[in-house]
């Protein structure tokens, strides 16, 4: 695993979900931002009390799979819990370019 690639991917996903995510409350009552398409779901959970920030990406298709899981506290280096590189990263990069160009993001 390349930590550098995983961290760059995490930053792209965090920027996208921060800009386009929809507020959601999970079963435990935890507030999060969700950005969901046919192919990917990005979930950002902000830190609260003792819980760190978290960002998860799931790839959808033949078999749903968590492809990125990162946790961090403000001011600290993120910890990459799970990283499975693949074609989904290209979708994320394209969505980021569309976001920067003011286009409608379509993962």
Overview of the molecule:
The chain has 107 residues and is α+β, with helices and mostly antiparallel strands. The chain has one domain. The protein has helices at residues 3-20, 88-100; strands spanning 22-25, 31-36, 40-45, 53-59, 65-72, 79-83. It has a six-stranded antiparallel sheet, covered by helices on one side. A hairpin with a 5-residue loop joins strand 1 and strand 2 (31-36). Helix 1 packs across helix 2. The longest helix is centred in the N-terminal third of the chain and has 18 residues, at 3-20. The model has no long low-confidence stretch (mean pLDDT 89).
Protein traits:
globular, 6-stranded antiparallel beta sheet, 107 residues, alpha+beta, 2 helices
Give a brief rundown of this model:
With 107 residues, this protein is an alpha+beta fold. The chain is 29% helix and 34% strand. It has one domain.
Mean pLDDT across every amino acid position: 89
Number of helices: 2
How many E strands?
A: 6
Strand arrangement within the widest β-sheet reads: 1-2-3-4-5-6
The CA-CA distance between the termini, in Å, is: 24 Å
Question: In this structure, how is the largest beta sheet organized?
Answer: 6 strands, antiparallel
Which structural category do the helix and sheet elements fall into? alpha+beta
User: How much helicity do the residues have?
Assistant: 25-40%
Global Rg: 13 Å
Tally of individual domains:
1
**Beta-strand content estimate:** 25-35%
Categorize the overall geometry.
globular
Low-confidence regions:
none
What is the string of helix and strand elements? HEEEEEEH
């Amino acid at each position: 695993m390349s930590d550098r690639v995983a961290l760059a991917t995490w930053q792209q996903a965090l920027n996208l979900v921060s800009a386009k995510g929809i507020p959601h409350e999970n079963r435990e009552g935890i507030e999060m931002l969700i950005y969901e398409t046919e192919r990917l779901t990005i979930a950002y959970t902000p830190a609260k009390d003792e819980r760190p920030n978290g960002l998860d990406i799931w790839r959808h298709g033949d078999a749903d799979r968590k492809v990125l899981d990162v946790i961090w506290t403000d001011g600290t280096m993120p910890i990459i819990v799970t990283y499975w590189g693949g074609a989904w990263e290209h979708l994320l990069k394209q969505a980021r370019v569309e976001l920067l160009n003011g286009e409608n993001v379509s993962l």
